[in-house]
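Appendix B. Raw example, untouched.
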Amino acid sequence: MGHADPARVDAGVTRVSTPSVVALTGATGFIGTALLSRLTSAGWCVRALYRKRNGRGPAACPGVEWLPGDLEDPGALEALVAGTEAVIHCAGAVRGA
């Protein structure tokens, strides 16, 4: 379990001294991408769910474990949240996606 440092970073993300894992949906979207950057900058390890498109996944990013799947896949969701400190849900329905 990570321990929050009194130092805080932008947007209210607490800097951690011992890396903790947070699960993030919507990490490839507009809000999720910004939040992913803030979390990893604060020392959090992020496990993020992504949908495969054209057989490709997101680029490797330090502190991020990318898992293929979607919100309708119970197995992917179980893997996403296993052993995490928190879940942040930023995924949303987008027309045409």
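End of appendix B.
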